[in-house]
Amino acid sequence: MDQIYCTVLSKDRLYQGIALYESMMRHIKQFVLYILFVDKESKRIIENMRYENILYSDVSEFENRYPDCRKGDKNIHEYCWMLKPFLIDYLFAAFKDLKRVTYLDADLYFFSSPDVVFFRQMNCSVLLSLHVYPDDYRNSWYPISYGKHNAGFISFKRDKNSKKCLKWWRARCRDWCYARIENGRYGDQGYLNLMPQLFNGVCDITTKGVNIAPWNYSSYQFSLKNKSVYVDNDPLIFFHFSGLRIFNDNKFGFLYEDRQKMIEIVHGVYLRKLKNIVIETKSVDRSFNGYCKLSFPPDCIRIIKLKR
Q: How far apart, in whole angstroms, are the C-alpha atoms of residue 213 and residue 216?
């Protein structure tokens, strides 16, 4: 095993984490996904599902190795953000033959293989995905507040440059990682802005079709060619379903997307996949509930209901 993917998973992202895994099974020929569970419920479900190509540990074991990565006063999302660089560091230490570790947010969904991303920039030590803001965002407070890069997909190659960069990121996240904008920082993500300035070998991903997301997908034309989804003239590699909330197996919410249309070959495919996963999970453990329990003002969320 020369490379591994990893994610941090909580029960309120379990359904999306399973969707991520199933998209990897469909589009990536050989892979291993390492999951760090932050609660017992999500770990129990994945164990009962008996999936292939998955390795895992839970956060209680993890905190014994890294006493300085405890939750403290962070909420669950902030805690998961903070754990990212610790998890990447752990995997390099645990698997000596690894040449690359790639972190994935649980709300990513692959539509084609990401192998081309690594092949085209194999000399880079760290690969960062850009937000690629459209013009109306680019001239607003978004890039300043949330950064040029997105932390949902970040890849480290084993070399001296990435080792220095990862150590620095881990220390920053340990010291401060909150879901607020403060002194140029935002969660684990704001620190990415500084990586290309401080370390050699840190590159922006140049492959098209990466990290298409709510904040930028209105800039692209989507089409279906030979059963593959394209954005403009390039294959869609993965879509980042940031801001999606699951209320039940038929009701979903998209934050921030009130002015944009749903793309059937992207959003429709993903929502039906989630619906099936919720139903399948119930058949494994009827007591599990990974639904969103928060309420949102109507002007902040777009509700989508699937036909039964």
A: 6
What's the first-to-final CA gap in the chain, in angstroms? Answer: 43
Question: What average pLDDT score do residues 85-99 get?
Answer: 96
Q: Cα angle at 131 between 268 and 221, to 5 degrees?
A: 45
* Mean pLDDT, range 56-60, rounded to an integer: 91
CA 100 vs. chain centroid, Å, equals 17
Which are the contacts of 63, defined by CB distance < 8 A and separation ≥ 6? 69, 70
pLDDT tens column, 247-300: 998 999 888 655 567 899 999 999 999 999 999 999 999 999 999 887 777 777
In whole angstroms, give the CA distance from residue 306 to residue 308. Answer: 6
Q: What is the tally of structural domains in the chain? A: 1
Residue 129 CA to residue 204 CA, distance in Å, equals 6
- Spatial CB neighbours of 187, under 8 Å, sequence gap ≥ 6: 78, 81, 151, 177, 178, 179
Helix 14-27, helix 269-284: angle, nearest 10: 110
Question: Could you give the CA distance from residue 206 to residue 204 in angstroms, rounded to a whole number?
Answer: 6
CA distance 305 to 263: 15
**Mean of the pLDDT values across residues 42-52?**
93
- Among 70, 40, 32, which Cα is nearest to 57's? 40
**Beta strand extents in the chain (DSSP E only):** 3-9, 33-37, 54-58, 100-104, 108-110, 126-130, 149-157, 181-182, 185-186, 202-204, 222-225, 228-231, 234-235, 238-240, 244-246, 251-255, 301-305
- Tens-digit pLDDT profile for residues 202-226: 999 999 999 999 989 988 999 999 9
- CATH for 265: 3.90.550.10
Q: Which residue bears the tokens 């993500």? A: 189
What is the pLDDT of the chain when averaged over all its residues?
A: 92
Residue range(s) defining the domain that contains residue 33: 3-305
